């Protein structure tokens, strides 16, 4: 007698099953992680700061690629760490040594990447210190516009409840400040990276308002 292969359980789908639906699910996973994982929020703000530095200092191609790759890699690691945490919590509800080791190892992966990125970032800054020192006006302008921009991004990712108008204002102000830095940007790629991170932060703020419980 042949045993029928177990069929895949049917889940209530929020969208269709096509390629766009797959992108939609991946986007939902990214936004959920930013909305509910404290460390991911820190990575996002750090990414915004990297974006501002990258668009303020004329870096070489190798430095640009390295910094962007580091930001993406940390996001990737934190998302996987979050997925592993959820999986462990799903399987183990009580204290378990293997669960602890799994979560600690996943967190260590993120820590190693984050530590490495800080070292790389510092090495690049030291290497370009002469450029930073001699372009006082450009740096002053970048700091004057960049700090309030980073402040707006922080408001967007803060988990505390607040009126929707605050988020809308923070997003519009951040985009406005970014638009002011764009004409003198040393790298459009870093400007686009910053814009993308702001959109993700705004989407996370919206997600927290729509679904207050993770
Ligand atoms: N079921 C468990 N059994 C044993 N130890 C656990 C268990 N769940 C969590 N821990 C320990 O508590 C730590 C924090 O786990 P938690 O699920 O709270 O993740 P978190 O606070 O979101 O972590 P992170 O700071 O990496 O985001 C883990 O790294 C692990 O050492």
TrEMBL record:
<feature type="binding site">
    <location>
        <begin position="103"/>
        <end position="104"/>
    </location>
    <ligand>
        <name>ATP</name>
    </ligand>
</feature>
<keyword id="KW-0472">Membrane</keyword>
<feature type="transmembrane region" description="Helical">
    <location>
        <begin position="188"/>
        <end position="205"/>
    </location>
</feature>
<feature type="binding site">
    <location>
        <position position="78"/>
    </location>
    <ligand>
        <name>substrate</name>
    </ligand>
</feature>
<feature type="binding site">
    <location>
        <position position="85"/>
    </location>
    <ligand>
        <name>a divalent metal cation</name>
    </ligand>
</feature>
<keyword id="KW-1208">Phospholipid metabolism</keyword>
<keyword id="KW-0547">Nucleotide-binding</keyword>
<keyword id="KW-0443">Lipid metabolism</keyword>
<feature type="transmembrane region" description="Helical">
    <location>
        <begin position="42"/>
        <end position="59"/>
    </location>
</feature>
<dbReference type="InterPro" id="IPR033717">
    <property type="entry name" value="UDPK"/>
</dbReference>
<feature type="transmembrane region" description="Helical">
    <location>
        <begin position="65"/>
        <end position="84"/>
    </location>
</feature>
<feature type="active site" description="Proton acceptor">
    <location>
        <position position="78"/>
    </location>
</feature>
<keyword id="KW-1003">Cell membrane</keyword>
<feature type="binding site">
    <location>
        <position position="85"/>
    </location>
    <ligand>
        <name>ATP</name>
    </ligand>
</feature>
<keyword id="KW-0444">Lipid biosynthesis</keyword>
<feature type="binding site">
    <location>
        <position position="15"/>
    </location>
    <ligand>
        <name>substrate</name>
    </ligand>
</feature>
<dbReference type="InterPro" id="IPR000829">
    <property type="entry name" value="DAGK"/>
</dbReference>
<feature type="transmembrane region" description="Helical">
    <location>
        <begin position="165"/>
        <end position="182"/>
    </location>
</feature>
<keyword id="KW-0594">Phospholipid biosynthesis</keyword>
<keyword id="KW-1133">Transmembrane helix</keyword>
<dbReference type="GO" id="GO:0046872">
    <property type="term" value="F:metal ion binding"/>
</dbReference>
<dbReference type="GO" id="GO:0016301">
    <property type="term" value="F:kinase activity"/>
</dbReference>
<comment type="similarity">
    <text>Belongs to the bacterial diacylglycerol kinase family.</text>
</comment>
<dbReference type="GO" id="GO:0005524">
    <property type="term" value="F:ATP binding"/>
</dbReference>
<dbReference type="InterPro" id="IPR036945">
    <property type="entry name" value="DAGK_sf"/>
</dbReference>
<feature type="transmembrane region" description="Helical">
    <location>
        <begin position="105"/>
        <end position="126"/>
    </location>
</feature>
<feature type="transmembrane region" description="Helical">
    <location>
        <begin position="138"/>
        <end position="158"/>
    </location>
</feature>
<dbReference type="Pfam" id="PF01219">
    <property type="entry name" value="DAGK_prokar"/>
</dbReference>
<keyword id="KW-0479">Metal-binding</keyword>
<feature type="binding site">
    <location>
        <position position="15"/>
    </location>
    <ligand>
        <name>ATP</name>
    </ligand>
</feature>
<protein>
    <submittedName>
        <fullName>Diacylglycerol kinase family protein</fullName>
    </submittedName>
</protein>
<keyword id="KW-0460">Magnesium</keyword>
<keyword id="KW-0812">Transmembrane</keyword>
<dbReference type="GO" id="GO:0008654">
    <property type="term" value="P:phospholipid biosynthetic process"/>
</dbReference>
<dbReference type="GO" id="GO:0005886">
    <property type="term" value="C:plasma membrane"/>
</dbReference>
<keyword id="KW-0808">Transferase</keyword>
<keyword id="KW-0067">ATP-binding</keyword>
<keyword id="KW-0418">Kinase</keyword>
């Amino acid at each position: 007698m042949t045993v029928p292969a177990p069929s895949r359980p049917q889940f209530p789908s929020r969208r269709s099953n096509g390629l766009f639906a797959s992108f939609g699910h991946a986007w939902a996973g990214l936004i959920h992680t930013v909305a509910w994982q404290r460390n991911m929020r820190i990575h996002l703000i750090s990414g915004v700061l990297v974006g501002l530095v990258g668009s303020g200092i004329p870096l070489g191609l190798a430095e640009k690629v390295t910094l962007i790759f580091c930001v993406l890699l940390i996001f990737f690691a934190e998302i996987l760490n979050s997925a592993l945490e959820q999986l462990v919590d799903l399987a183990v509800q009580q204290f378990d040594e293997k669960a602890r080791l799994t979560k600690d190892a996943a967190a260590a992966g993120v820590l190693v990447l984050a530590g490495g990125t800080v070292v790389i970032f510092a090495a690049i800054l030291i290497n370009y210190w002469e450029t930073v020192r001699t372009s006082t006006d450009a740096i002053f302008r970048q700091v004057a516009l960049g700090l309030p921009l980073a402040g707006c991004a922080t408001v967007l990712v803060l988990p505390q409840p607040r009126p929707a108008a605050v988020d809308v204002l923070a997003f519009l102000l951040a985009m406005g400040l970014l638009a002011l830095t764009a004409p003198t940007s040393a790298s459009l790629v870093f400007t686009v990276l910053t814009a993308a991170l702001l959109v993700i932060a705004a989407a996370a703020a919206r997600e927290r308002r729509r679904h207050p419980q993770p």
